[in-house]
């Protein structure tokens, strides 16, 4: 399954995970401390309170926050682009490396190319992924696929 990282609907994703894990509503309501009607409402919402998402991530054994991280990797401006000149100021918040591509992101990008939905040039332009990175992924995952096919 490929998640639409551009238009994340958290309620749908949570509902999908609940169905996969076969967890009943009373258990979920007890864990996140809500009523049955509140729980039904949450499943229709595009976004939820982070405390609820954290508790559901624990219960459902799935990191829903990572979906947003993947969105940032693909759609947020490059860290070295200076949109504001406060870049010299240090922050008290942790500093994370931006360009860390997970297997899911790599699979998503390669699927876009293989299916013909996007060209390599479109991927480079839209997601700001360097040409060399795309070609490295293509070679690496082609070799992995060939090795798996041989087994």
Shape: globular
Task: Note the beta-strand portion.
Answer: under 5%
CATH architecture of the largest domain: Orthogonal Bundle
Radius of gyration: 19 Å
According to CATH, the fold-level topology of the largest domain is 434 Repressor (Amino-terminal Domain)
Major sheet, described briefly? none
Pfam family, one: CENP-B_N
Organism: Chryseobacterium ginsengisoli
Domain HTH psq-type: 111-145
Protein name: HTH psq-type domain-containing protein
Short key terms for the protein model shown above:
single chain, 151 residues, mainly alpha, 434 Repressor (Amino-terminal Domain), 2 domains, 8 helices, 60% helix, globular
Give a quick rundown of the structure:
The protein is mainly alpha-helical. The chain has helices at residues 10-21, 25-32, 36-42, 50-60, 65-75, 103-115, 120-127, 131-150. It contains eight helices and no strands.
What would you note in describing this structure?
This is HTH psq-type domain-containing protein. Pfam families: CENP-B_N (PF04218). The chain has two domains: 62 residues, Orthogonal Bundle (434 Repressor (Amino-terminal Domain)), CATH 1.10.260.40; 54 residues. The chain has 151 residues and is mainly alpha-helical. It is built from eight helices and no strands. The mean pLDDT is 83. It starts with 9 loop residues before the first helix and ends with a helix.
